[in-house]
Write a structure and sequence with these properties.
It is built from 20 helices and 14 strands. It has helices spanning 15-18, 23-34, 39-42, 64-77, 103-116, 131-142, 168-178, 184-193, 206-217, 232-251, 261-273, 279-291, 297-304, 321-326, 329-337, 353-357, 417-423, 460-464, 524-533, 545-553; strands at 47-52, 81-86, 121-126, 146-150, 157-159, 162-164, 381-386, 389-396, 406-414, 436-439, 471-474, 486-491, 508-512, 517-520. Helix 6 (131-142) packs parallel to helix 12 (279-291).
């Protein structure tokens, strides 16, 4: 795919602000001169927004001030005019009740900031879990030329000579501490050593999964997602993003000219081959919807049955993102997938994905496995359906206990997370290895915001006895760095009347991941009787303005948890300038 013809300067979107010999044109130009710029700097050349999600609380993006300067250097070098625009920070570790609740807010802000200002293209700087889909959702709705700049993974963690992975080793170490086999001194040392640099989680959590998915989607410089955040190559990549977006702006090469069904198939295949985060299912569905492309849970599951897991990355494997980079990075993984990748799909580089990955090599067959020796013969995720999840649920099979992927046991039900926290260690519940823990009230509406509560804790007495996994089911999400036999995103959720609301203690629940089934084995007549007895939904606590908007308009998990009024905005008129 070759670059297209360049537009004339008068065809640039920013020309509508800066070009006319009018009262408004005078005002726009004079205010730019007030900022210290000369007319030659900002007219007749593409204006490029550097959309920066940096803040003092965004540990994943702590290096973005410096990277924004590298982008700026690249834009100037290519003859563009850079303008940095800060937007909402979604700092996964700190933001409550869940950064997921604010993904749609950042998507709206991104779209409207770019729509309302004189911008011809954008470099979208993100990486921490929800920033990646949020920035692209907004850019897709506006349909403006853009390049995504991934934050990159942090360095490996270290404790007493042991390599640590963010998230994954937190849960394991906490289980050991609860079981009494890890003392406070060791716990504090792990706290000091698990996150050693800027960058997002270096396990195959949601951040690494989504940046890789967007890389395969064609919206980054191919292979950029693998570069560690503090590697010098990352700064050079940022400058290259700045240079590339100027050319895309000249061409008017918006996402709608690049993306199609092949692009989303490539993204999903990549998620599956990486053993990626369950959260990617929600985000890819939302992104496809914003791009106006059909992509649903059924398509994802069809691909899962034929896509092997090749990346041996934690939590489903042994290694970390730094190891993946040194093993050849995402380009090498895509080459190894062969004809499972649509090589003729377009990318922002101006070349096809196949052209971009040609010649890439795998340097470590343990990190990126050969096709005849995969981590798993099928993709690391599965979509479940059944009487407990009519619209679908998700399980990360590669991070689950194989012995529990086919299981039948009695339910132990918790109505919300405070109920779970208060009672999980109550011996009167009689929780044992057969039990199926059920959490409801944790979905998009019920929580609200669908927090990462899906890795339900295991009772201390079972941890002390050596039990490290149980079947756990919820309408929540879980961190991509988590592990265990956790069924997530049960849809529809309990708060809107989904079958999860009808489960009672002792009800038999059957999970069969191979058959893609999740069933509540209770007679339909009994379930209808219970439904008739459900109390009306509680009024709920007072909410903020955005909280009220969210609860009223968020869609269910199988539809991407986007707002029901969001749409591909390609036909929305440009702002009027008199």
């Amino acid at each position: 795919m070759a670059d297209g013809p360049r537009r004339a300067p008068e065809e640039l979107r920013s020309h509508r602000w800066f070009g006319p010999d009018s009262l408004r044109g005078f005002g726009h130009r004079s205010r730019m001169k007030q900022l210290g710029y000369s007319l030659e700097e900002f007219t007749g050349r593409p204006v490029i927004a550097i959309v920066n999600t940096w803040s003092d609380l965004s540990c994943c993006h702590g290096h973005f001030r410096e990277r924004a300067e590298a982008v700026r250097r690249g834009v100037w070098d290519a003859g563009g005019f850079p303008v940095e625009i800060p937007v909402l920070t979604l700092a996964e570790p700190f933001q409550k009740p869940s950064a997921m609740m604010f993904r749609n807010l950042l998507a709206i802000e991104t779209e409207e900031v770019l729509r309302s200002y004189p911008v011809d293209g954008a470099v979208l700087m993100g990486g921490c879990d929800k920033t990646t889909p949020a920035l692209l959702m907004g850019a897709f709705s506006l349909d403006i030329p853009c390049v995504f700049l991934p934050a990159g993974p942090m360095l490996r963690g270290n404790w007493r000579g042991t390599v640590l992975g963010s998230g994954s080793d937190v849960w394991k170490s906490w289980a050991d501490r609860q079981a009494g086999v890890l003392d406070e001194c060791a716990w504090r040392e792990i706290e000091d050593g698990i996150a050693r640099s800027n960058g997002h989680c270096m396990t195959m959590g949601t951040a690494s999964t989504m940046t890789a998915a967007v890389d395969a989607l064609g919206m980054t410089l191919t292979g950029a997602s693998s570069i560690p955040a503090v590697d010098a190559n990352h700064s050079r990549m940022a400058a290259a993003c700045g240079r590339r977006i100027v050319e895309l702006a000249w061409q008017g090469a918006a996402p709608s000219t690049l993306l199609d069904a092949r692009s989303f198939d490539n993204a999903a295949t990549t998620v599956l081959a990486l053993g990626g985060s369950t959260n990617a299912v929600i985000h890819l569905v939302a992104l496809a919807r914003r791009a106006g492309i059909a992509f649903d849970l059924g398509r994802f599951d069809t691909m899962a049955r034929t896509t092997p897991v090749l990346a041996d990355i934690r939590p489903g494997g042994r290694f970390l993102m730094e190891d993946l980079y040194y093993a050849g990075g995402l380009r090498a993984l895509l080459v190894r997938l062969g004809d499972r990748i649509h090589g003729d799909a377009a990318t922002v580089t101006g070349r096809t994905l196949g052209e971009e990955i040609a010649g890439a090599e795998v340097y470590d067959d343990e990190v990126i496995r050969p096709l005849d020796r995969p981590v798993s013969a099928e993709g690391g995720l599965a979509i479940l359906r059944g009487s407990l999840a009519p619209d679908g649920a998700v399980i990360k099979t590669v991070a689950a206990s194989p012995s529990l992927l086919r299981h039948r046991g009695p339910a132990v039900v918790f109505d919300d997370y405070p109920d779970l926290a208060a009672r999980i260690d109550d011996p009167a519940l009689g929780i044992d290895e057969r039990s199926v823990l059920v959490l409801r009230g944790a979905g998009p509406v019920g929580a609200p915001g669908m927090p990462e509560w899906g890795m339900l804790p295991i009772p201390k007495r079972l941890l002390a006895a050596g039990v490290r996994d149980l079947v756990r089911i919820s309408d929540a999400r879980m961190s991509g760095t988590s592990y265990g036999t956790c069924v997530l995103h049960v849809s529809p959720e309990s708060a809107v009347g989904g079958p999860l609301a009808l489960v009672r203690d002792g009800d038999p629940i059957a999970l069969d991941a191979d058959a893609r089934r999740l069933d509540l084995e209770v007679e339909p007549a009994e379930l209808e009787r219970r439904r008739a007895q459900l109390p009306p939904p509680p009024a709920g606590p007072a909410r903020s303005a955005y909280g009220e908007l969210y609860v009223r308009h968020v869609t269910q998990a199988h539809l991407g948890c986007d707002f029901d009024f969001a749409r591909p905005g390609h036909d929305v008129p440009e702002p009027y300038i008199d």
